[in-house]
Amino acid sequence: GRRNIYPVTFGYQGRVQSAYGLYDSGNLLEDPISGKPVSIMEAELLAKILPKEHAEALKNLNGDPENLKSTEIAGLKTVGKDPQTFLAVRLDDLCIHTPGDVIHIAEPVFALTFESSALGKEYKLLLNSRLLR
């Protein structure tokens, strides 16, 4: 039942958060600018490691990237091509703790979901399929 669910840690500006991520073999999202794989994270989880003012601004977005206007919030940017554009953030690092190894990814990109029920109860991240190859 817990196959393909891995403990992960991710960090931003010296803050670190732990969670569980599901390896999603169907997630082929890619940042069109950097070409980096894009994983998916609950916005509520990201808010836990952001400075207070950035976490509040993130909560007020309600998943609408157009509300960003010209203001950047802790490196937030849009990822994806119309009509499916996601609000995303590039963090400092991500570590995926597999049974045989710890995989370190520098500057991982996460698309954000604002629906708490969008992911499973056991995991708060959907890991891009390219991260564990």
Describe this protein's structure.
A nine-stranded mixed beta sheet has the order 4-5-8-3-9-2-1-6-7. It is mainly β and 133 residues long. The two termini are 22 Å apart. The longest helix has 10 residues. The protein has two helices and nine strands. Helices cover 11% and strands 38% of the residues.
Note the main attributes of this structure:
133 residues, mainly beta, 9 strands, 38% strand
Question: How would you briefly describe this protein structure?
Answer:
This protein is mainly beta and 133 residues long. The protein has two helices and nine strands. It is 11% helix and 38% strand.
Q: Can you count the beta strands?
A: 9
Uncertain ranges: none
Amount of helix: 10-25%
Indicate the overall shape.
globular
Oligomer: single chain
* Order of helical and strand elements: EEEHHEEEEEE
Distance between the termini: 22 Å
Describe the largest sheet.
9 strands, mixed
Structural class: mainly beta
Strand order of the largest sheet: 4-5-8-3-9-2-1-6-7
Q: Give the number of helices.
A: 2
Portion in strands: 35-45%
Average pLDDT taken over every residue: 80
Radius of gyration: 14 Å
Write the layout of secondary structure elements.
Layout: E1 5-12, E2 15-24, E3 38-42, H1 43-47, H2 52-61, E4 76-79, E5 86-90, E6 93-97, E7 102-106, E8 109-113, E9 125-128
Parallel strand pairs: 2-9, 3-8
Antiparallel strand pairs: 1-2, 1-6, 3-9, 4-5, 5-8, 6-7
